[in-house]
Design a protein that fits this description.
- It is a single chain.
- The protein has a four-stranded mixed β-sheet.
- Helices cover 66% and strands 6% of the residues.
- Strand 1 (48-54), helix 3 and strand 2 (74-79) form a beta-alpha-beta unit.
- The longest helix has 31 residues, at 173-203.
- It has two domains: 2-41 and 171-368, no CATH class; 48-151, abc type-2 transporter like fold (3-Layer(aba) Sandwich).
- It has 369 residues and is of the alpha/beta class.
- It is elongated and about 95 Å long.
- The mean pLDDT is 83.
Length: 369
């Protein structure tokens, strides 16, 4: 049995690696997506264009403007002198924020009252607007503390001392790159596995496979092992690039990480074999793959927290293996989690893997006979 399965595994690997298009699918898109996600997809704002509308050309207002200019998140692009100039700047997206300092700003500060500062934000992207509000509030809070210390005013009743664990500099890349391990591993493994049986049917070689002494279980093993090997190599490449190229710390052990990877691949291969068993052509297999892949990514917590989803949608995430592996890979990378602490994430993937593989075997036998 083993030598027959091994021969089928070698045949599958050669079929994938000898085909130029298949090699490009395995190598090209993952590298491109890794670079795009690693560099372009982040939640940090840098050099955001903003305009200054300063009606109080005094030393305190200049100090406040200088603090905004010196912040890496902001880049001044215009100085305006009337209310009528605000709307066109934001409408044309030349500035995402306008800092408006009232003409009584310094006078109010010297009297001991609050100086009036207005932020006019482009709210078309609510996430960006909320981040800008947070950055601006931090700068204004630092300015208030500086003014109170310099002019003997009352100190703030409470100060906020922020310390971030696991991601001290709050770099979004440290959050995104470990997630790419799950994302790209699922994409490549699903494609390889889903196309395996469909390719045999489309090429007319499936009947030849049936007349061999191999049993259905042998054929399923031979079709699943190449996906497992390719997925493992893909994940290892992304993990290595994340640590050595993007500088994301790997604080946990390889045992905890690769145990989660093994169970995740088990689940994904089961889904891929189900799709492959139902598909007659490779085009159908591709459509079935993307039918599963897109919802699984959205419902995994890769980009948006699961806690922010409606309760009914949150229940759907429990049957998504990517949800659990994302927790595993991010916990191992950033928290240094151990195998024991990740058991609540391991056993759901194990159940999903066994169920999907059993369903794939049943569908395969049903289509076979």
């Amino acid at each position: 049995m083993l030598h027959r399965v091994f021969a089928l595994v070698v045949k599958e690997l050669l079929a994938v690696l000898k085909d130029v298009k298949s090699r490009m699918v395995l190598v090209g898109p993952p590298i491109i997506q890794l670079v795009v996600f690693g560099y372009a997809a982040n939640y940090d704002l840098n050099h955001v264009p903003f305009a200054v509308y300063n009606e109080d050309p005094s030393q305190p207002s200049r100090e406040l403007v200088a603090r905004f200019e010196g912040a890496p998140a902001f880049q001044e692009v215009a100085r305006i002198h009337s209310d009528a100039e605000v709307g066109p700047l934001i409408d044309r997206r030349q500035a995402l924020m306008v800092l408006h300092i009232d003409r009584r700003f310094s006078r109010d500060l010297l009297r001991g009252s609050a100086g009036h500062v207005q932020l006019i934000l482009d709210g078309r992207n609510s996430n960006t607007a909320l981040l800008l509000m947070g950055y601006a509030n931090t700068i204004l809070s630092d300015f208030d503390t500086w003014w109170s210390e310099r002019h003997g005013g009352p100190k703030p009743p409470a100060t906020l001392d922020i310390r971030a664990r696991f991601n001290e500099n709050l770099e979004s890349r440290w959050f995104i790159v470990p997630g790419i391990v799950a994302l790209l591993t699922q994409v490549v493994t699903l494609l390889v596995t889903a196309l395996s049986v469909a390719r045999e049917r489309e090429n007319g070689t499936f009947d030849q496979l049936l007349v061999t002494p191999m049993r259905p279980i042998d054929i399923l093993l031979g079709k699943s092992i190449p996906g497992f090997l390719i997925g493992s190599v893909e994940a290892t490449f992304i993990i290595t690039a994340g640590v050595l190229w993007f500088g994301v710390p790997l604080r946990g052990g390889f045992v905890a990480l690769y145990l989660g990877l093994f169970l995740f691949l088990l689940s994904v291969i089961g889904v891929g074999l189900m799709v492959s068993s139902l598909s007659v052509t490779q085009q159908q297999a591709l459509l079935g793959t993307f039918l599963f892949m897109v919802p699984s990514i959205i419902l995994s917590g890769f980009a948006t927290p699961i806690a922010n989803m409606p309760p009914m949608v949150q229940y759907l995430t429990y049957v998504n293996p990517m949800r659990y592996f994302l927790i595993v890979v991010r916990s191992v990378f950033l928290e240094g989690s151990s195998t024991r602490s990740l058991v609540p994430q391991y056993w759901p993937m194990m159940i999903i893997g066994f169920v999907t593989l059993a369903m794939a075997g049943w569908l395969f036998r049903r289509r076979l006979y």
